[in-house]
Structures are given as C-alpha cells and as structure tokens.
Amino acid sequence: MMQMKIKAMTSEARASAWIVGSLPVLVSIATIFLSPGYMDILWEDYRGNYAVMGAFAILFTGVTVMKKMAKFDI
Predict the structure, then answer these.
(1) pTM for this one?
(2) Which among 45, 46, 58, 23 is positioned nearest to 31, based on CA atoms?
(3) Burial class of residue 52 (count of CB atoms within 10 Å of its CB; 0-12, 13-18, 19+)
(4) pLDDT in tens, 21-46
(5) 46-69 helix and 11-34 helix, angle to the nearest 10 degrees
C-alpha cells in the first residue's frame, strides 16, 4: 500500500523528467525539418559537435538526477 502511495506522489516528478528530457530533442527535430540550414553549423564545425555532445551530456545528467530523486526504496 505504501509503495502505491509513493508511486502516486512521485508521478509528477517522473512526468516532468520525461517532458524535460524529450522537449529538447523534439524541438531540435522540428527545427531540422522546418529550417534545414539553421542547424547545419552544429554538424559541420567541430565547435558545434562539442556543443551537441555537451548538451546531450547535460541533458542525460539532468534526467538521471530527476529519476533518482523520484525513486524511493522501501
């Protein structure tokens, strides 16, 4: 019973983790399709490659921390 209560209480945090994690990817995909040349610098220049790698690392770290915060062991 307690596990079900904790799962219900942490559902908002889990939903936020999904939204925060998927939003940058979805916006990037939409930008690539709507304005193809806008993000070319990220793929053609080494500094853009580092920026993309850094963004994914920060995104992964943030989602991982949010998931750990929303998980309780009983």
Answers:
(1) 0.68
(2) 23
(3) middle
(4) 889 889 999 999 999 888 888 889 99
(5) 160
What digits encode the pLDDT tens for the residues 5-17?
777 777 777 787 7
Residues 36, 29 contacting (CB under 8 angstroms): no
Q: How far is it, in rounded angstroms, from Cα 57 to Cα 52?
A: 9
pLDDT of residue 73: 63
Asked if 62 contacts 53 with a C-beta cutoff of 8 angstroms, the reply is: no
Angle among Cα 45, 21, 29 to the nearest 5 degrees reads: 50
User: Cα separation of 27 and 44, whole Å?
Assistant: 20
- Cα separation of 19 and 24, whole Å? 9
